[in-house]
Design goal:
Helix content is 64%, strand content 2%. By secondary structure, the protein is mainly alpha-helical. The protein is globular, with a radius of gyration of 24 Å. The two termini are 16 Å apart.
Length: 336
C-alpha cells in the first residue's frame, strides 16, 4: 500500500511510553533519559493517531499512584502541548480547525463520530467487538474458568446473557449457517473470557488488589471499549489492538493457577496469530497486478482501487485513474 495504517505504530508508541514512564518513576541515574523517552513516545503516539491523546491520562495515573502526581501533571501537559501548538499553527496558516473541517463533511472527525454514534451501528460494533475478543482470547477460556473455581457460575450466567445478546444481533446479519454458528461461538468466547476476568478480580480480597495498576488497566480498557462502541466510524480489528494489552495483563494475573493450561493456551494463540498473518500475506499477494495475464501491447493501464492495489501504481506500466482526468480521451484499459 502507498499509505501506512497508523494503529500498529500507535500501539508501539503507547506501550513504549508506559514502559519508559514506569522506569522513570523508579528513579535511578537514567531517570531523565527515561522521562525524555516517555515524552517522545507520547508525542509520537498523539501525532500518529488521535486515540493517542488519551495516553497522557494514563501517564498521569501512573505517577499519581506512585505519589508523584505533580510530575504526572507536568508530563501530561508537556505531552499534549505539541499537539495543541500544531492545531494553533494550522488555524493560523489556513484558518481551518484540524479534525473538524475536511473536503467533505463525512471525512471530518465530527462526521465520522456522528456516523459511529448511530444506534444500529453501535449495536453492530458491540457484537463485532465481542467476536474480536473471542478470537484474541478464546484459547484462554478453559484456564480462566479453572482459575475461577467455585466462582465460575456467576461468570457463566453473565456470559450466557452476552451470548443471547450476540446471538440476536448475529441472526439478522448471517448469510449462511456456518457464518451464524462460527460468529456466535467467537462472540460467546469473547463474552465469557472478558466477563470471567472481571468476575475473578471482583472476588479477590481488597487487601491483595494492586490498586494502581488495576485502576489504570480498567480506565484503559473502558476507554477503548467506549471508543469502539461509540465514536469509531466502523468496527475494525485495528481499533481493538490497544484493548488487548490490558486484558492480557489481567489474564496473566491468574496464570499461577494450572500454569500448564495457560502455557498451552498461549501456544494456541500464537499459532492462530501466525496462521492469520499468513492468510493476510496471501491475500496481499492476491492484489499484485503484475501477476495478472494482461495485454502486453496495451501501453499504460489505468487502475482503480485501494489498499494493496495502490502499490502497483508505482510501476511505470500502471497509472492511477483520477476522476475527470480523461474525459476527452478515455483510457483503453482500466483495472478495477
Amino acid at each position: 500500500a502507498t499509505s501506512l495504517m497508523a494503529d500498529v505504530p500507535l500501539a508501539a508508541f503507547w506501550l513504549a511510553a508506559l514502559a519508559f514512564w514506569e522506569r522513570a518513576l523508579d528513579g535511578g541515574e537514567f531517570r531523565k533519559i527515561w522521562t525524555a523517552l516517555t515524552w517522545l513516545c507520547a508525542v509520537a503516539a498523539e501525532i500518529t493517531a488521535y486515540q493517542g491523546l488519551g495516553l497522557p491520562v494514563l501517564l498521569f495515573m501512573q505517577a499519581s499512584f506512585r505519589s508523584r502526581w505533580r510530575l504526572g501533571v507536568v508530563m501530561a501537559l508537556a505531552a499534549w502541548l505539541p499537539f495543541f501548538l500544531w492545531v494553533i499553527e494550522v488555524w493560523r496558516a489556513y484558518h481551518i480547525m484540524p479534525m473538524l473541517q475536511a473536503p467533505r463533511t463525512e471525512l471530518s472527525l465530527l462526521g465520522e463520530v456522528a456516523h459511529g454514534l448511530q444506534w444500529p451501528l453501535a449495536m453492530e460494533k458491540t457484537w463485532v467487538l465481542a467476536m474480536y475478543l473471542g478470537i484474541a482470547f478464546g484459547f484462554y477460556l478453559i484456564p480462566t474458568l479453572f482459575a475461577l473455581g467455585k466462582r465460575r457460575t456467576g461468570a457463566l450466567v453473565f456470559s450466557a446473557m452476552g451470548w443471547s445478546l450476540a446471538g440476536m444481533g448475529h441472526l439478522s446479519n448471517a448469510n449462511s449457517l456456518f457464518q451464524l454458528v462460527w460468529g456466535f461461538l467467537l462472540m460467546a468466547l469473547g463474552w465469557t473470557v472478558v466477563l470471567s476476568l472481571f468476575s475473578s478480580f471482583s472476588q479477590h480480597p481488597k487487601a491483595t488488589r494492586p490498586v494502581g495498576p488495576t485502576a489504570i488497566f480498567l480506565v484503559w480498557t473502558a476507554g477503548f471499549v467506549l471508543f469502539q462502541i461509540g465514536p469509531a466510524p466502523f468496527a475494525a480489528p485495528r481499533y481493538v489492538l490497544l484493548l488487548l494489552p490490558p486484558l492480557f495483563l489481567f489474564l496473566m494475573a491468574h496464570s499461577h493457577d494450572r500454569p500448564g493450561l495457560w502455557k498451552l493456551a498461549t501456544v494456541g494463540s500464537v499459532l492462530l496469530g501466525l496462521l492469520v498473518a499468513r492468510a493476510e500475506f496471501n491475500f496481499a499477494q492476491a492484489q499484485n497486478l503484475m501477476s495478472l495475464d494482461l495485454p502486453k501491447d496495451s501501453g499504460v493501464i489505468h487502475v482503480v482501487g485501494e489498499m494493496g492495489i495502490n502499490a502497483s501504481t508505482q510501476h511505470p506500466r500502471f497509472e492511477r485513474l483520477v476522476p475527470k482526468q480523461h474525459q476527452d480521451h478515455p483510457p483503453e484499459y482500466v483495472l478495477i
